[in-house]
Amino acid sequence: MFYQSALFLGYAYAHGLIHFISEKWQWVIHAFIVGLTLCLLPVLPGELWRPNATGDPSGAILLMLIANVALPFMALAATGPLLQAWFARSQPHRSPYPLYAVSNLGSMLAVFAFPIAIESRWNLASTSDLWSLGFAGTAIMIVACGLISRKSHQAPPPSGRSAQAHAQTKTDQFLLWLLLPACAVILLMSITNKLCQEIASLPFLWVLPLGLYLLSFILSFSSERLYSRFFYIGLPLLTFALFFFSSSIPFFPSLNLTTSIERVWLTISIYSLVLFALCMILHGELYRLRPPVDELTKFYLSVSGGGALGGIFVGLIAPRIFSTFYEVSVGIGLAIVLTAYCLGRDSKSKIYFRGPRWRIVTVSLVAVFLLGQNCVQTLNESDHTIHRERNFFGVVRVKEVKDETGATQFRTLQHGSTLHGKQLTNPSIARRPLSYYSPFTGIGILLNPRETTKTLHIGVVGLGVGTLSTYGGQSDSFRFYEIDPAVIRIAQDDEYFTYLRDSPSEIKIIPGDARLNLQMELDSKLNQDFDILVIDAFSSDAIPLHLITREAFQLFLDHLNQSGILAVHITSRHFDLLPIIIRIGESLGLEMLSVLYDPGSARQAGLKTRWVFLSPNSEKIQSLTQKVNQQQLRISAVSDASIIVFQPDPDVPQNAPLWTDDYSSLFELLGLSSSSKPSL
After folding, report:
1. Which of 75, 468, 488, 520 is 20 to 30 A from 286 via CA?
2. Whose CA is closest to 235, among 187, 280, 189?
3. How far apart are CA 103 and CA 364, in angstroms?
4. Which are the contacts of 367, defined by CB distance < 8 A and separation ≥ 6?
5. What is the rounded radius of gyration, in angstroms, for the C-alpha atoms of the chain?
6. Do 499 and 642 fall within a single domain?
7. pTM score of the predicted model
8. Which of 122, 156, 190 is the last residue of a domain?
9. Could you tell me the end-to-end alpha-carbon distance of the chain, in angstroms, rounded to an integer?
10. Using one digit for the tens of pLDDT, what is the confidence trace for 183-228?
């Protein structure tokens, strides 16, 4: 939302510069703005911008971006229309519009290059310096282009259109300049959110829809010949027909927990196909409506204004009025209406408004049918969801899983496609810990059985449904840190989950970001002196990087007592975090133990789960190792389940990077997960 809005402000500045400032002063003023921006670099925020631990962070994020990024980004954004206007002035017989395709090509290359070639090789400070140098070099070239344009000024460029079309921009054409790009941005942002949070939390999945969005701009603005109405309108129609006639492939509803990886990839492919086809239609029709070059900046101002409106709708309005990602269907429905209108207003189209009535009626019926099907598919959520809630952090759902008789067997809490906990509904066994916390997992072995005479003070980063509280005794205390207020409300609601209510221990929940809260407690001399501190924030593949750095682990250690244990849950579908944990532990001089539990065919005994334990006390790790080995012998004798124990050798993870607050790279971690030895 911020970048779409800042883009609009940059284009507004360029439009004002071209239309209200004389040609000889345009490059001078822009050179001054760019020079002022150079004085404000680098763009990295300082400690002053450390956010509050609680509340919706949207406002703080927006203020931080405005203060640190707005002016540099607006200066760069204005460069696009400015250079095209200057190009049209110096080259009046050549169209400047393909330069817009070139600029989007540069954007697409940068999107893919940053995580692969830059972030994985440089830390934040070095990357910021590199960007500042690049900005300075760009500034020199921008000023040079302005000088060249001024010296090579020629007669005003011809319109390339009829005088009648040139006379005045029609109202509906101006509205289409706004609505077409707004709809494309709605589709981009909403489908990205849907894919990354609801369908599959795959690494770098956000790059795919953004790349397709930029590709549609590149192709559409390169040449009208690259946009075929028949082909690109046929693609989504074919896809919608597939959904209508095949109920076995869900499109709009979320996938359930039993979805195979093949169906996930099929759904991702279909979403991507629809996004690309609709963006090609929207941007292709937008390019057909381009004005003569003397209205170029007005055109781009309208386009960026539409993008800002789309960004505001998805980023600000939709999370507050929709309980799930309904904006996907809003974008698709709007695209259907806009496509039909663009075809109807074009005299060259076969369904021109003034053409044969049967064609118009047919197209209208098809559009109404598609809109109706879109609404039905959106509202039909038949996945046993009994509660759904949405906020800044995404959509959480409580679902009921029933047995063969139709009776509710257990309830689950999901954030998108990630399981955050489940509980049996039978009161006699409702306190039984499930999923990642069963008695056979590493954390279960650590907490049960134990010496009943010792009082434990346990900290937990990540509440889930409060499953770990079931291991507490009457004299124990749990201090949960949870960033999502919706998760806190659901976990405390006895209608859904009762772990917290039934626990005999003292329970305290601290809302907000765990690291910020722990730091504030330490700054206030409120050392928690935990016996056990559980870090359970990595089961999703949206890894909170600020919780897995050397500085973060040092903060965790500062809240442990001298014989305390740090328990880290690193079960993940796509990332192997163990090499990173080992490097951090080795750098802090900690003893470590990794425990992988595989339930085998006994799925009711829990999920395949990996825990890592770290402590400055070697005796604690040795004692835990003995308990794990004993449990391993017990379960191997009665089932095909297994417990694999791994005590890391400090020499093993030499190829793993040391993550700090100044350096981390998820892309590099993908390579480690398939090649590093300590994958147990």
Report:
1. 75
2. 280
3. 37
4. 336, 337, 340
5. 29
6. yes
7. 0.84
8. 156
9. 41
10. 999 999 999 988 887 776 666 788 899 999 999 999 999 888 888 8
